[in-house]
Design goal:
Blueprint: H1 2-28, E1 34-36, E2 43-47, E3 53-57, E4 61-68, E5 75-82, E6 85-92, E7 96-103, E8 114-120, E9 125-128, H2 133-148
Parallel strand pairs: 7-9
Antiparallel strand pairs: 1-2, 2-3, 4-8, 5-6, 6-7, 8-9
Length: 150
């Protein structure tokens, strides 16, 4: 019988941890960055931690580039860092004011990650990535193809 009570304690602990995670994400949003776009929509939507997001209409995009991530994110002006994700408005010497949605170890000296830079027609800069260099590069190619074939 003591073995059964240990099992039930373990189940309860796991249930509390899962419930705590769902409560946390329902209050603060996701802990990472998600990107949504496609051929049958007119917008790129990037969602970050703390329920932050930016929506860019395809017609507002001036250019799209695959670039190295910033060596230093600079100062958060309307965003922040949450766990390993960056979100919102930032300012640094490299980009000036820019919207930054990135996840992972962007600033690791051993692993500078690629980012996608969207320049909007009004001059707004949006920099984002997708998990790793391969994923970001593939997303850039796919998104560029979608924009070219509209």
């Amino acid at each position: 019988m003591p073995h059964m009570s240990r099992f039930f304690k373990s189940v309860i602990i796991i249930a509390v941890l899962i419930g705590g995670y769902y409560l946390f994400t329902s209050i603060f949003g996701s802990t990472s960055v998600s990107i949504e776009f496609g051929r049958y929509t007119d917008d790129l939507t990037i969602t970050g931690p703390m329920k932050s997001s930016i929506v860019i209409n395809y017609d507002d995009i001036e250019s799209l580039e695959l670039v190295d991530g910033p060596s230093d994110p600079g100062e958060a002006k309307g965003g922040g860092k949450f766990l390993k994700s960056f979100y919102g408005l930032w300012n640094n010497s490299e980009w000036g004011d820019y919207n930054y949605y990135a996840t992972g170890a962007i600033f690791s000296k051993s692993n500078t990650k690629k980012c996608i830079l969207v320049t909007e027609k009004d001059g707004t800069l949006v920099l984002f990535n997708y998990n790793d260099d391969d994923g970001t590069t593939n997303m850039f190619r796919l998104f560029n193809d979608i924009l070219d074939n509209r």
